[in-house]
Every structure is written in structure tokens, then in C-alpha cells.
Amino acid sequence: MRRRSMVIYKKNEREESVMAIIYGLSRKVMSGGTGKFYAHAKSVGVVSMEELCEGIASRCSWRKSMLQAAAMALSEAMAEHLAAGKIVELGGIGRFQVSFGSVGVESPDRFLARKHIKSAKIVYRPGKEMKRKLKGLEFKKERG
């Protein structure tokens, strides 16, 4: 049996439904200090590709299978363009770009990409529309 996560809805000034983000507090102690408490977001679950496509299908005329195929094609196309060094822009959703860290070397002629470039990752920067949709978020402290 599939377990569904509980979503908490509140209304903002524009009367749109927004979800409350659950947060926890943890103490971070710096050397010689007593430490301060900082908030961090708590996940309430994972939405699968199937569930996401189901939700989208209920809002448009595409079937779930068509959306899943389109999502897989988008994933492949994004990987291809990111591997070519391009920034992938998905309109109001945002931009994706490859980033990495490297080990420092004494001189440029000692630098070997295979040896010194580390931790490649994909960086996501939300678009204006995504930022606007997340602007009215509510926050709720975790129980316990």
C-alpha cells in the first residue's frame, strides 16, 4: 500500500493555496562558543515521476504515459546539452548548469583536468515564475 504524505495548506493575501514547509532546529557550535540554533527544512516525502505525471495529467489533456515519455526525453536532452557545457533554461521553472570544484595547483602548466577537477554537480537557479510561486510560503516547526 502506498503511503501519502500529509500536506498543510494555508491561504496567502492573494487567496492561493500554499504549502507549509516543515522545519527543524539544530545547534551549531563554533569553537569556544555555546552555539546558536539554526532552522533547516525537513522533507515530508518524495514525489515520484509517476505521481508527478498523474498530477499534471489531471490538469491538462495529455495522458500520464505521454507525460512520462516527454519527461524522459527532456531528461535525456538536458543531459546532452549540459554535457556540452550549455545552460538549460526551462522558462519560468529556471536554469540548470554544470558546476564543479577543483584542487589548486602551483602553476597553470601543472593543472590536469582529470586529476584536479572534482565534484561535478548540477546547479539549479529558479526562474522568476518559480520564485513568485514560492514567495508566499508558510513555515511550521516540526512536532516533537
Give the arrangement of secondary structure elements:
Blueprint: E1 9-11, E2 17-28, E3 36-41, H1 49-57, H2 64-83, E4 88-89, E5 94-102, H3 113-116, E6 117-126, H4 128-134, E7 138-141
Output the radius of gyration.
21 Å
Q: Kindly state the number of beta strands.
A: 7
Shape: flat
Helix content: 25-40%
Based on secondary structure, the structural category is alpha+beta
Defining traits:
3-stranded antiparallel β-sheet; 144 residues; 4-stranded mixed β-sheet; 4 helices; alpha+beta
Description:
The structure is a single chain. By secondary structure, this protein is of the alpha+beta class. It has a domain of 30 residues. Helix content is 28%, strand content 32%. The chain has four helices and seven strands, in the order βββααββαβαβ. Strands 1, 2, 3 and 7 form a four-stranded mixed sheet that branches. A three-stranded antiparallel sheet has the order 4-5-6. Strand 2 and strand 3 form a beta hairpin. Helix 1 packs across helix 2.
Provide a short characterization of the protein structure.
This protein has helices at 49-57, 64-83, 113-116, 128-134, and strands at residues 9-11, 17-28, 36-41, 88-89, 94-102, 117-126, 138-141. It is of the alpha+beta class.
